[in-house]
Design brief:
This protein has two domains: about 220 residues, Aspartate Aminotransferase, domain 2, CATH 3.40.640; about 140 residues, Aspartate Aminotransferase, domain 1. The chain is about 40% helix and about 15% strand. It has 15 helices and twelve strands. The strands form two sheets. It has a seven-stranded mixed beta sheet with strand order 1-7-6-5-4-2-3, with helices on both faces. It has a five-stranded mixed beta sheet with strand order 8-9-12-11-10. The longest helix is centred in the C-terminal third of the chain and has 20 residues.
């Protein structure tokens, strides 16, 4: 049985494994920056790309290679390049393709650092950018009515859980020759494979659910196009140095082994917590694609199959009450990370989106009362009890 015939759970455990001469059971951790050659001629031939072998871990490493192969298998991609962080992945996916005079269209509901790249960094290099409301296909159609090089979006979005119609946007983008880049962090490949809807490139912060336990940083860029790999991505990757460390790749290989069961448990807990929050005193609104109250519930179910592991909710009273609510929690911890086995909560307006101006935050629905909750693997009843006691502290019985 070849690797390509294995089902997802098997790929997550066994995919891409290459054993050394020692026949280790666990994937080998190759902590080496360089590699030796038998002869000077062999070294020269390697640099001329006449032979293929390891030459420097900024280019390739056996442990990182196993991680990249396993990621590619579960995503259904031909190529994967593992990066040091999720933002390194986003940056490479864009900058490897762009030059002065190009145009980028992006959903405005993006992580704060992604918005910074779109609004502040790309224009410095003479690249035109335009933001649209991701849920509005009319805005996508208008923005993509003229030549565009790249489209960037995330679905579900951070932190308001907005859903973008992947197939519709990909179809519009391809009509003008644009490549579509999808940040799939919130859904993971377990719930959603954007390439099946037409996406050209999928990016991850593997720091999140792929590591899954808040240990190491990482990112990944996945795609199928041979020319994109040879002419754009690989030259950028080799020469700018965003490579993932072997140790982080080894740690995240172990994270992949349990990704399927973890994500499904996260989703189960998130659904229970979201339904509970809808009835909790002091909670104005709940943003969770798995709820029928979510305006894009049907689309989310069609693309993901369930509501996902993340949610956000708005507290009455703005920042003061939101902070009081966070401070009253005893089990759920305050942290701006997500995707951990532990439940984590943050206040986006003062953390992940603190650099976004007030008008744009208002347009995105990031109010001073909004809290983002990464639902962990604890017992859902304990999470509900913690939320209930925090509500009682802040809003009374």
């Amino acid at each position: 049985m070849s690797n390509k015939t294995w089902r997802t759970s098997t790929q997550l455990v066994q995919g891409g494994t290459r054993r050394s001469a020692f026949d280790e059971t666990c994937e080998g951790l190759f902590l080496t920056s360089g590699y030796v050659y038998e002869t000077a001629e062999e070294q020269e031939a390697t640099f001329k790309e006449e032979i293929k072998r390891y030459q420097y871990s900024r280019f390739a490493n056996p442990t990182v290679g196993m991680f990249e192969e396993r990621m590619a298998m579960i995503e259904g991609a031909k190529y994967c390049l593992a990066t040091a962080t999720g933002m390194a992945a986003i940056n490479m996916a864009l900058m490897a393709q762009l030059q002065a005079g190009d145009r980028v269209v992006a959903s405005r509901a993006l992580f704060g650092s992604c918005l910074h790249i779109i609004n502040n960094i790309l224009p410095k290099f003479g690249i035109e950018t335009e933001l649209v409301d991701g849920h509005d296909l009319n805005q996508w159609e208008a923005a993509l009515s003229k030549p565009t090089r790249c489209v960037l979006l995330e679905t579900p979005s951070n932190p308001t859980l907005e859903i973008v119609d992947l197939k519709a946007v990909c179809d519009l983008a391809h009509k003008v020759g644009a490549r579509v880049i999808v940040d799939n962090v919130f859904a993971t490949a377990i719930l959603q494979r954007p390439m099946e809807f037409g996406a050209d490139i999928v990016v991850y912060s593997t720091t999140k659910y792929i590591d899954g336990q808040g240990r190491t940083l990482g990112g990944a860029v996945l795609f199928n196009d041979d020319a994109l790999f040879k002419d754009e991505m690989m030259p950028y990757f080799r020469n700018t140095g965003p490579a993932m460390s072997p140790f982080n790749a080894w740690t995240q290989l172990k994270g992949l082994e349990t990704l399927d069961m973890r994500v499904r448990k996260h989703c189960e807990n998130a659904t229970l917590v979201a339904k509970f929050l809808e009835k909790l005193k002091g909670v104005r609104t709940v943003n969770y694609p798995g709820l029928h109250s979510h305006p894009q519930h049907k689309l989310a179910m069609a693309q993901m199959g369930c509501g996902g592991p993340m949610l956000s909710f708005e507290i009455e009273g703005g920042k003061e009450q939101a902070f009081a609510f966070e401070n009253a929690l005893q089990l759920i911890r305050i942290c701006n990370n997500l995707g951990d086995s532990k439940s984590l909560i943050t206040h986006p307006a003062t953390t992940t989106h603190s650099k976004v101006d007030a008008a744009e935050k208002a347009r995105l629905g990031i109010s001073d009362g909004l809290l983002r909750l990464s639902v962990g693997l604890e017992d859902a009843e304990d999470l509900k009890e913690d939320l209930a006691q925090a509500s009682k502290v802040v809003f009374g019985a």
